[in-house]
Amino acid sequence: MRNSLRILAMGVALLALPGVTVAKGIKEPLRDGYYQALKGKKVAFLPGAMAMDLAIGWLAGLKSELEPQGVEIVVRDPNFNIQAGAQALTQLIAEKPDVIVVHNPDVTTYAKLIKQAEANGILIVQINMASLQKSTAYVGVDWVEMGAVQARHVVEACKGKSGKIAIVQGDLTAAASAYTMSGIESVLAENPDIKVVSNQSASWQSDKAKSITQTVLKQNPDLCGIIGFWDNMDRGTAAAVDEAGLSDQVYVATSGGGETKAACDMVKSGAYDLNVVYSVPNQGANLASTIKYLLSAGVKPGEISGQMYTTLTPVTAANAGDEGICWTMKQ
Amino acid sequence: MHRFQLSQQMIVSVIFVLLFAGLSLLLPGFANTENLLTLLQNVAILGILGLGMAVIVIGRGVDLSMIASLAIPVALTLQLADAGHSTALAIIAGLALSALFGAANGWLIAYAEVPPLFVTLASGLFLAGLGQAFLFSTEAVVWPEPLQFLSAIGRGRLAGIPNSIWIFALVAVAVHAFLSRLTAGVFTYSMGDNPMAARLAGIPVRIMVIVQYVSSALIATLAGFVMAASVGSMSTRIYNSTWIYDVILVVVLGGIGLSGGRGSVTNVLIGTLLIGTLLNGLTILDVSFPVQNLIKGFVLLAAIMADTVLNPRNEETAQQGDI
């Protein structure tokens, strides 16, 4: 009884003490190091071109997450010119930023430069299209899985139909074409009743995609599915199907960064039956998180090599209208 | 002189006929009406551009900025219409930009006397850069709802024939009329044959140069409208592609010498048909992209070599400015 009274008294006494003493926190051991590690660091961004919805989304993510913490972001825009991109990367290596975010136009062109950059102490984070050369981090789509997802949907849609499908690739040596193809092949290997009647490259251009699809549809009017490799290009693919009056019969699958006009609107209009979306804002955030982690941990190039694969969301008529499936570019 | 022209055209015609016959025999599904219409539809835009380029090349020039004229003015129109401006204003703005651009090209070539190769190389970069950097936030500008009434120029059919083929035919007739019926056409040939003599003869060479480049820019913009309507968007990235080489290929393959003064609409049609047949056949055969390029290059080389063997160049046939 006496004891409990004493405890009570102590409690009252404690409460009576000025609030200041209670609020005085203990020193947080992380933040000083974190801000010091990030402040004044330089991150260079080398996309295929800034005029892509993807690059705009990624840069927005980098800026909103990193700039408030004192990280300087510089952009080199090769505007779809691979030589200009290689030159920009060479130049960046000489300028020695702390991190370079690289969007590879194909799996080989930047490979040597990536190796050289990391040898010079620059962290290389590859975004969405990886080079054959591994670097500290890759943030982006698992293209093999992407191909498999699309192929599974098309195989499903082709059940009970002709089983004839066409494939419209981008640049053949781009990661997004080469690896997607291997994903498709793995699914098709299990479905011998599906026959690929055409497998052509449209070099990411919508007019070429349309020409190829038109010709293929004329030769195979009983086609049941098409797998396209990028929604911006497959506007042409979809236009050809629409013009042939085969929208109901031909299942058009594509993929992209989920920008409203390129993805959800096109699925809603019935142009695409499926758009497998990798959320670009999420990728931008992942990219920024990766850089924050690498810089604050003081990782040196070559020490580690990791991947952060983006979640793939199949967008169909069922969910194209849902909140948060697509994102809208700020003008 | 006459023999030279005929032979050049003949070689390509023979290659075309052989290719066409071969594909018809060996490739089931090639020689049916629907596929041939698709073939034509696929090269209609290339053909329209080829016609615009033909006028320039006959007048001894070259217009490397055509793809910029195809992309940027059209994208401007689409963007303005999408932003809620009146469709008339949007279309006029696009056409005005195109005409102004062509006039600037012509002025630099005619009055500042800069070679057309350099002028149009630089001005194309300028216009494409202007568009890509300042006018549009993304490379693909979507065909907007308010312009739906115009989308028939690239989609749909009239009397069973795709509309883009009709437009190609119309432009072919117009360019043919210009070259063979109008005085301006005669001027164009004489300028191409010998610019100094044309000038001495009192032909308004400088004004004609401006007229030619304005026409090629406007024809390219028309092709751009057809293309954008056809695929539902205009991708300014097309400027970075190899389209301009394909246009030159069609013109040269058809037999219009780059040294000017020779050729007609028929040459462009033959060149376009040959390329169209080749691409269509290779797509049906599902030949891989690198092999397609190889075959395209081989056919071009074959045509050039056959021409060189049959029509060896000498002092008599060579012209000043021959490439």
UniProtKB/TrEMBL annotation, chain A:
The keyword DNA repair does not apply. Its main location: other. Pfam families: Peripla_BP_4. Coiled coil: none annotated. Keywords: Signal. InterPro entries: Peripla_BP_I, SBP_2_dom. Transmembrane segments: none annotated. SUPFAM superfamilies: Periplasmic binding protein-like I (SSF53822). GO terms for cellular component: cell envelope. Belongs to the bacterial solute-binding protein 2 family. This is ABC transporter substrate-binding protein. It comes from Zhengella mangrovi.
TrEMBL record, chain B:
It is a multi-pass membrane protein. Its main location: membrane. InterPro entries: ABC_transp_permease. It comes from Zhengella mangrovi. The keyword Membrane applies. One of its GO terms (cellular component) is plasma membrane. This is ABC transporter permease. The chain crosses the membrane at residues 12-31, 37-57, 87-110, 117-136, 165-189, 210-231, 243-261, 268-285. One of its GO terms (molecular function) is transmembrane transporter activity.
